Amino acid sequence: MTVAPEPPHRLTRRQRQRTTRIVQYGAFAAVVLLVVFTANWRDLQLGFFRPDVAASMFPGVIFPALANTLLFTIGAFVFGLVVGTVLALMRLSSVRVYRWVATGYVELFRGLPVLVVLFAVGYGIPIAFPDRAIPGGVYGKMALGLGLTAAAYMAETIRAGIQAVPRGQLEAARTLGMSYTRAMVSIVIPQAFRIIIPPLTNEIILLTKDSSLAYVLGVTATNVEITKFASDVLNTRVNATPLVVAALAYLVITLPLSQLVRRLELRAARAR
């Protein structure tokens, strides 16, 4: 009488997951150890982490560089938010021409690189209107150039937020005797902005990084931003440490905003 062989032992689903996780952690640790023991840390420190070069960038990297980056970002965000709100309402309008104009704007500026828009604003407008100047100099040009592109993205975000508000809110407001405009301004739009605060905060982060393109407008020592300031120091000291300092300066702005986005998303999730 022959005895049937026992079936091979099969891992449970949890055991497979644990084994896979251990392999992943082991591979990650191996890569880290490989980098730690094979990298030329001395030359890396001399090329990217020289304390004397970093110290020479202060206080200029904070003021005016970081301050100007914030001004460029805030100006572009405010301009883009206003224009984006108007475009979102036009996209939702019952008037066909308004929808066509808003759709054309959104498709155009979402497809154009920010660098091209800044060139058009900084050099095209002065040629087209030689007797007119954009108010605010470089600050006004940056707010207009970055804001035109940001408005296209914000318009779609705001439109999605308005459509996410239950239709019954608008109908109830109209039943109470409110006009369509007043109902949108007083009831629908405030609720829509409460919904879209996290993606709008992400837009601020993107604008902060896009402000590094200000150099195309010919900035001076008083309105220089972080990247241009670091680039000038790099050319003077022939060392890459200014790029590391510039990266840290951007993180000073973007990391708190990222934390704010996460908190807002958690609050919105709890509210739902």
What features would you highlight for this structure?
single chain; 272 residues; mainly alpha; 78% helix; 0% strand; flat
The major beta sheet can be summarized as: none
Succession of helices and strands: HHHHHHHHHHH
> What global shape is seen?
flat
What's the rounded overall pLDDT mean? 91
| Rg value | 26 Å
Low-confidence stretches: none
Helical content stands at over 70%
Report on this structure.
The protein is an all-alpha fold. It is 78% helix and 0% strand. The protein has helices spanning 13-38, 41-48, 51-56, 61-91, 96-111, 114-128, 138-164, 167-175, 180-210, 226-237, 241-271. The longest helix is centred in the N-terminal third of the chain and has 31 residues, at 61-91. It is flat. The protein starts with 12 loop residues before the first helix and ends with a helix. The model has no long low-confidence stretch (mean pLDDT 91).
List strands and helices in order, with pairings.
Blueprint lengths: L12 H26 L2 H8 L2 H6 L4 H31 L4 H16 L2 H15 L9 H27 L2 H9 L4 H31 L15 H12 L3 H31 L1
Q: What would a concise description of this structure say?
A:
The chain has 272 residues and is mainly α. The protein has helices at residues 13-38, 41-48, 51-56, 61-91, 96-111, 114-128, 138-164, 167-175, 180-210, 226-237, 241-271.
